[in-house]
Amino acid sequence: MESEYHRWYDAFHLNEVLQVPDFVAAERYSLVESDSSPVLGDTSHLAVFTVASDDIGATMSAFRDAQKSMARPSCLDADSVTLSWWRPLTNPVSPVVTGHA
Fold it and tell me: Nearest CA to 68 among 1, 20, 8?
């Protein structure tokens, strides 16, 4: 059912979440397995939603309210879903390019 899950997530759920006020962008990731980054439990996919809010408590509350009416297709294993909220500690950082004399 994984392919059905990805179709639902990409074609429906991302837009569903982005209808919640203050949710402004979404990205999905798939874990790249390697010897240096082993799989942690069953976690293999990550969705990151960017939220622009001056009142994160109200935004979280609006999201929880919206969740009640969001679709829960049979391909979704609700027990495998973990939700957490993160705040950036820095602005994005890019490498500094120095010229050679």
Answer: 20
CB 28 within 8 A of CB 10: yes
The sign of the dihedral angle between the CA atoms of 84, 85, 90, 96 is: positive
Q: Which pLDDT score is estimated for 49?
A: 94
Is pLDDT of 81 > 80? yes
Q: Supply the pLDDT for residue 19.
A: 95
Greater model confidence, 83 or 41: 83
In this prediction the pTM is: 0.76
Query: 51 forms bridges with which residues in the sheet?
Result: 23
Residues in contact with 82: Cβ distance below 8 Å, sequence separation at least 6, in sequence order: 43
**Distances in Å between the alpha carbon of 84 and those of 4, 20, 33, 50?**
24, 16, 23, 12
Q: What angle do CA 51, 54, 55 make, to 5 degrees?
A: 90
